[in-house]
Amino acid sequence: MSTATTSPSVIAPPTVRRTQLLIDGQWCDSTSGKTFATYHPATEEKIADVALANADDVDRAVKAARRAFESGDWPAMDARDRGRLLNRLADLIEENADELAALETLDNGKPIRDARAADIPLVIDCLRYYAGWADKITGETIPIRGDYFCYSRREPLGVCGQIIPWNFPALMVAWKWGPALAAGCTIVMKPAEQTPLSCLRLAELATEAGFPPGVINIVPGFGETGAAIVRHPDVDKIAFTGSTETAQRIMSDAAQTLKRLTFELGGKSPNIIFGDSDLDAAIEGAEFGLFFNQGQCCCAGSRVFVEQSVHEEFIERVVARAQERRLGNPFDENTTQGPQIDIDQFRKIMHYIDRGKHSKATCVTGGEREGTQGFYVQPTIFDNVTDDMDIATDEIFGPVMSVLPFRDIDEVIERSNKTYYGLAAAVWTKDVAKAHRIANSVKAGTVWINCYDVFDAAAPFGGFKMSGIGRELGGAALANYTEHKTVTMNLNS
């Protein structure tokens, strides 16, 4: 699984260009001089040392963002020019797409084929989508009683702290930057400590595109760095993607200053397969919906409910597909599954696999480490899972599928909703009425019908219950980065 191979299907790892902080348009070391290492999860070898931002660095970044928002070129810029900058950034990303895809593979371990086909094209599309929104963020004229003229404005919220995860590093940058920059906000971002490199490279491209100093600031670090952003009194909003437990701490820390908050959090998404579905498509969708990105997706279809009439056939065929997955060097274009992100995530996944094996569920394939180097976990499927098992209730965030048989639609609706998560769901059936009954009854922010993991920058994404607050993407995301102001004028004055 080493990247050192002469196979023609293997591409070379990229050169790491940026490892410092970006504050007020300048690349700089941290005030402490400290760094932290980032590792390639396929080989466990160090890639680079990255500057470690502390509270003083966060304070410098927030002050730079505040200056840019209050008195710099950014607030005075025409909205269409903001849109042009976002389009210019998207163009630069497209010009450097191969490098950025390879950087995702180096830092995250995801297969290069996925980074090329999904991550980077979605980054480009997201930024172009919000470039089109920049000059269309408008208020409305409001008829009220009396001789008054009343209208509303949507104004940029201010300095936004953005904390992103490691599973889709570049794409999470785009999801956060796009609406914030289109609305006219400024940014202090902390990338995940496991995957800072693509964010730093994107920030370099943003500088090249012409974003003014202080509009985008990048402060890599660990939880303490993120906490410093959350607690800073001059940060107006926090946008966080990650675990529900971390969001709870952020909400507590942000209470002192009543910051605006948006969270995109965990999930334990039900993927419901009826006997009348196109079983070929449903099996393909179940495999993709769980194993894509090594199972490291917040919306992974990890609870697969299968109607009893097709349960036996489903198990036989989905196991065959899982066993065909090719684990190996993520820089090999033939690899379909890479390593987990790091040793902590690997150990967590193996812990849950062990819990599943010691339950009454049946491990029908996988369940072991793959190889001796890198954090590889075999594609794992458990059959005969019950709702109360840990593997059915907890977010594992790895390549572990739980299959739960069911009898009828009323039962599966009730069982699907028996979770404190509510991020996504899917249903597979040829019965349109049945499909929409599921879509209307399942408590989830996104429901896919006869498909899975279909994302578009125009379609809002977020969770019910403890899977989040607010929405990413679409016009809905712009509400997270604007304040509504009402203006009323006496026409007789």
From TrEMBL:
<dbReference type="GO" id="GO:0019752">
    <property type="term" value="P:carboxylic acid metabolic process"/>
</dbReference>
<dbReference type="Pfam" id="PF00171">
    <property type="entry name" value="Aldedh"/>
</dbReference>
<dbReference type="InterPro" id="IPR016160">
    <property type="entry name" value="Ald_DH_CS_CYS"/>
</dbReference>
<dbReference type="InterPro" id="IPR016163">
    <property type="entry name" value="Ald_DH_C"/>
</dbReference>
<dbReference type="GO" id="GO:0008802">
    <property type="term" value="F:betaine-aldehyde dehydrogenase (NAD+) activity"/>
</dbReference>
<comment type="similarity">
    <text>Belongs to the aldehyde dehydrogenase family.</text>
</comment>
<feature type="active site">
    <location>
        <position position="264"/>
    </location>
</feature>
<dbReference type="InterPro" id="IPR015590">
    <property type="entry name" value="Aldehyde_DH_dom"/>
</dbReference>
<protein>
    <submittedName>
        <fullName>NAD/NADP-dependent betaine aldehyde dehydrogenase</fullName>
        <ecNumber>1.2.1.8</ecNumber>
    </submittedName>
</protein>
<feature type="domain" description="Aldehyde dehydrogenase">
    <location>
        <begin position="27"/>
        <end position="487"/>
    </location>
</feature>
<dbReference type="InterPro" id="IPR029510">
    <property type="entry name" value="Ald_DH_CS_GLU"/>
</dbReference>
<keyword id="KW-0520">NAD</keyword>
<dbReference type="InterPro" id="IPR016162">
    <property type="entry name" value="Ald_DH_N"/>
</dbReference>
<dbReference type="InterPro" id="IPR016161">
    <property type="entry name" value="Ald_DH/histidinol_DH"/>
</dbReference>
<keyword id="KW-0560">Oxidoreductase</keyword>
